[in-house]
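pasting input
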Amino acid sequence: MNAFTFAPPPPSSAAEALREEVRDFLKTELSGRTPLQKAESWNGHDPEFSRKMGQRGWIGMTWPKKYGGHERSALERYVVLEEMLAAGAPVSAHWIADRQSGPLLLRVGTEEQRQSILPRIAAGECFFCIGMSEPDSGSDLASTRTRATPVQGGFLVNGTKLWTSLAHLSHYMILFCRTGDGKEDKHAGVSQFLVDLKNTSGLSIRPVNAQSGEHHFNEVVFSDAFLPETAVIGKLGDGWNQVTSELALERSGPERFLSSFAVLVELLRVLGRDPSERAAIAVGRLSSHILTLRRLSRSVAGMLQNGENPALEAAMVKDLGALLEQEIPEVARLLSPVEPSVSSDSDFAAVMAYVMLHAPSFSLRGGTREILRGIIARGLGLR
Amino acid sequence: MSDTTADLLRETATRLFQEHCEAQQLRAAEREFPAAAWAAVEEAGLHRALVPEEAGGYGVKVTDALSLLRVAGEHALPLPLAETMLASWLLAGAGLPIPDGPLTVAPVATGEALTLTRKDGVWHLQGAASRVPWGRNAVAAAVLAMHEGVPHIALIPAASWTIAEGENLAREPRDTLSFDAAPEAVAPAASGIGPAQLRAVGAAMRSLQMAGALARITAVSVQYAQDRVQFGRPIGKFQAVQQNLAVLAGQTAAASAAADMAAEAVAEGVRLLPIAAAKARTGEAAGQGAAIAHQVHGAIGFTYEHSLHFSTKRLLSWRDEFGNEAEWNLLVGRHMAKAGADRLWAEITAA
């Protein structure tokens, strides 16, 4: 059972001092944002806001200074993240780059990749998307078919990536694709590439609108797209190991239990300071769950800081977090009658609508519930 | 106390509980108080772990002392260890002597209070306290009662109460004690300790016990799924069973984190909000976890012969003791509502 020990999060007084600084910043910067806009959580896209965060030193916080980072602790970074999410700040432009693309380059990228890209990410000026899923390769990532074939001076890429969040607004993609001959084990012969989305020919990006009508996802088609040899990230053929070590970063953060926090805020506003006993119990229950998840999530941040790879613990945080995120609107609708509608004059109704339209994705993105539970079962020794 | 000493204490407790919590001993304990096991606990001094050094304790950190209860919960220890720790802590805080032997605390049931009066310099305690844990086995109780608006602790010996026996699902004694007598000693409770704090420390203790019991049922359920063969393979190879066990492990992790949060909150002066959240969260995990453990075990886990029920019956009892999920979530919810929508996040980070 040692696989599931969540050590107490390390204390950090520096992080608490930083919290006040972040709150002051957000008070000014978000004053014009409506509750509906705040409900976008980490889907809100605002390059100008990202640049301001970069100026404050709040992107790439834990990275070495020589790459534009700030050498702060994982717990300090955690404070910035959770304050942004709880306040409904539009952080999506730089989110992926800060969370996993930058750390990937830092870990396995070439010196040239690090120097040319990391300082721009940290400045809030360089945005990333992740090219993993394909039409026939969703949860079964190792079945990926997009292929990079070696040619003179580089590779030619052919294939289609799907559900690529924000590809149309990003500068780079971390592409995950086949490079082996296909005869080896399916976890071997896959690699990661740095794709310059603005300067690569043979590449087309088409919108795939979500059920809410929003353009968030894309289909990215590679047709003989040329990538130079310098685009390889890490070791050719080592893509599977590289990508799985990103998962702890991807699955354990506060974005995994705060996606519908705006609903709880607006619910509390509607209920007022002296709600019925039934409503108070329900709000209390959701708050108790948040307190517990926040402790689990911060514990994982501590493990990351210690250089561990808490992939299992992260899977657990994400599974529990998604359950809570999806339950919040379900509880809220029965405490105060509401007909959700994004165009409603009622902030509560609008926020409820936004979250309900996005809630199915909470247990799909970043690893489905079933995949996560399979990982946990493996950790228990059952597979 | 260094971390190594704390580890040593936990190792001692683990060894001792293992020795005294075999299935047949747990069965026997449902009929008769396991006096030998209690003697071993006293011998090791575990029951004094929460007593501060200046009051004659060993200077164990509060969180380390409370961590013994997680180990106790893991083994379904059929002894009033939590209750004796709690009573000793209350007595020490009030500067009162701590008797040897098993102790208990009162009142513990929601809404109950006892009447403490003083006439011509003589104290008198009156009233009934229901669901008092291990009442019939305790040599004395630490009673918390108000006197002229000030919380007082009364040390009252077993000879001074009458008893109506009761039990919880796990057949642990939960008795009604009736008082109409002079306590042996009375003093104001430690500063900041009142009825709410007594209830909260009890709730934190039950949270730790539940976290331990959940860890145990997760381990035995995983083991059972690996051993039990149906359709030609261990049932743990079926995805439906794996998914259930993953949920159980998740609930166990949540309960464990919540219990840690409660222990820290006790150490930080009995902060009610995190303890409330923790008791509610572990209680919820207890119900869900026990149900999955039984589902995985099938019919055999439903028998008296199998030992799963020693853990699950305790989980289902402990979630209702020292306040159930509704009671504690109400406290959390009222606190958040009073703070208001725009302060919600600040309250969460400050909790």
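fyi Chain B has two domains: 3-188, 195-350.
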